[in-house]
Amino acid sequence: MRVATFNILNGRVPTDQHVNLVGFREAIRRLDVDVLAMQEVDHNQHRSDRADLTAIAAEAMEAPEHRFVAALSGSPGATWIASTGEEQPDAAAYGIALLSRFPVRGWRVVRLAPVPVRVPMRFSGRRLPELVRDEPRVAVVADVESPGGQVTVVNTHLSFIDWWNGRQLRRLVADIADDTGPVLLMGDLNMGPERATHLTGMTSGVQLLTYPAAGPTQQIDHVLVRGNVRTHRGEAVALPVSDHRALAVDVELLHDPA
After folding, report:
1. Which pLDDT score is estimated for 78?
2. Whole-angstrom Cα distance, residue 66 to residue 95?
3. What is the pLDDT of residue 15?
4. Are 114 and 159 in contact (CB under 8 A)?
5. Is 93 helix (H, G, I), strand (E, B) or coil?
6. CA 76 remoteness from chain centre
7. pLDDT in tens, 23-32
8. What residues contact residue 29 under an 8 Å CB cut-off, 6+ apart?
C-alpha cells in the first residue's frame, strides 16, 4: 500500500495565503495514496470557505474510511479553545485527519497537552523573543485492514516547542506500546529524523527534505515504522497547496516464515 503524510496548511497557497480548494482536490488526487495523514485541517472555518476539508480529501482519493479529530474548537481571532471531542458535528474546528481506502477495524484518539505556560519564541525579523501560548495537540490511531494484513496507523501534529514535542512523542509511543503488530507513525513532528527515531525507537521509512515546500532545507514530516515492515519508493512531493511537501512511500508488510 502507498501512504503519505501531508501538512495541508488549511488548503492555502503559501505565496499569497488564499485557500485554493480546487488546488487542494488536485493535490490529493495527485498523491493517489491508500492511507493519508493530514495536519492543519480546517472544518467549517471562514478562512477555508466553510469547507469540510476531510470530506473533500476523502472524495478526491475515494477513501470510505476517514476521521477528522479536532485539536481546537472555534475560530482563530474569535472563540478558540481546546477541543474536548464533545463538539457538535458542524462546529468550527481545526485539527488532523486520517483517511483510508481500506477498512478500519477501530479508532482511538490520544490528546496531548500543550505547554502549560507561555514560552519565549524568536521570530524572523524580530530582535527580541515573544511570549507565545502553545496549542493543544492530538493524535488519531486506526487499526487498518490492508491487503497485506492489519497495521496500526497513527497520525499526529506535535508542538513546535522542542523540549515539549519530545515529551508528547514519548507519551504517544507509550500509548501504542501494546500494539504488537506493524505500526506506522506519521505526521508533522516538528523535529528532524535523528531525534524522531531516537525518541520512538522506530525506523524512518523515508528520509527526504519536506519544509519549506519551495526549497526544503529540513525534514519535519515523517513516516516512522515498527515491526515487520519494508518501505520503497519514498518521495517528497511539491503540490499546489501548503508550505510543506507531502511525504509518500510504499509500505510492504512482511510475514514471519511459518
Report:
1. 65
2. 13
3. 85
4. yes
5. strand
6. 20
7. 999 999 999 9
8. 60, 61
Question: pTM score, two decimals?
Answer: 0.94
Within 10 Å of residue 247's Cβ, how many Cβ atoms? 29
Element of type H or E holding 180: none
Q: Give me 29's grid cell.
A: 488526487
CB half-sphere exposure, 254, CA atoms < 13 A: 10
How far is 100 from 215, CA to CA, in rounded Å? 29
C-alpha distances out from residue 175 to 54, 154, 179, 198, 200, Å: 25, 11, 9, 17, 12
Residue with cell 508550505: 243
What SS3 class is residue 115? coil
- Looking at every residue in the chain, the average pLDDT score rounds to 93
Sort 160 into a burial class: Cβ within 10 Å, 0-12 / 13-18 / 19+.
Answer: middle
What stretches in the chain show pLDDT beneath 50?
258
Q: Please tell me the predicted confidence (pLDDT) of residue 257.
A: 54
Give me the residue label for grid cell 515573544.
Answer: 130
